[in-house]
Amino acid sequence: MAKLASTPYVAVMDDDLIPNDENFLGDVESILCEHPEIAAVGLFGVILQSETCYRHCAHIPNRRFQGDVNVSLLKGRFVAFRVESIMDFTPVTFDCEDIEASAHLGSLGTLVVPELLSNRTRDLPRQGGLEFRPDHYDRREVARRRFFKC
Questions:
Q1: Nearest alpha carbon to residue 85 among 24, 13, 8
Q2: Does position 63 have pLDDT exceeding 80, yes or no?
Q3: CA distances (Å), 39 to each of 61, 94, 113, in order?
Q4: Any idea where the domains of the chain sit in the sequence?
C-alpha cells in the first residue's frame, strides 16, 4: 500500500504504538528531508554482528540514548522512508518483511534510529504478538542470514 502513497514519505507503525506528541511525524519528515543520505528511520533497530545470531546482536530500543544510532536493520514497529525507494521492492517473506525491507533500504542509504525520536511514543496494551511465537527468533535468524551477508 505504501507504493500508492501520494506523499514523498510514508510511515508504517504497529497498531499498539502511539506518538506522544503532535510533532512526531513532522520531525520524521524533517529528518528524511534534510538528510538525503538516510534511507529510513525507525524507533527500534538491530546492529548485526558477524557470527552472532540475531537474538544476541545489539538491539537498539526506543528509549533515551545519546546521538543517532546507525543500524543494520530497522524493526517493523515503526519505520519511515521515501516512497520512491520502495517502488521496485516486493517482499517475499511472510513474517520477516522488516528484515527484507531493511536490506533493500540499507542498500540505498543509512538506516537510523534518531535521538530526536527516542522516548516519543508509548505502547498501548497488547494482546500478544509475533515475538511470542516459540520460533520467533529462529525465523528472524533465517531471514537475517538470507538477506544480510554478515
A1: 8
A2: no
A3: 19, 23, 11
A4: 2-147
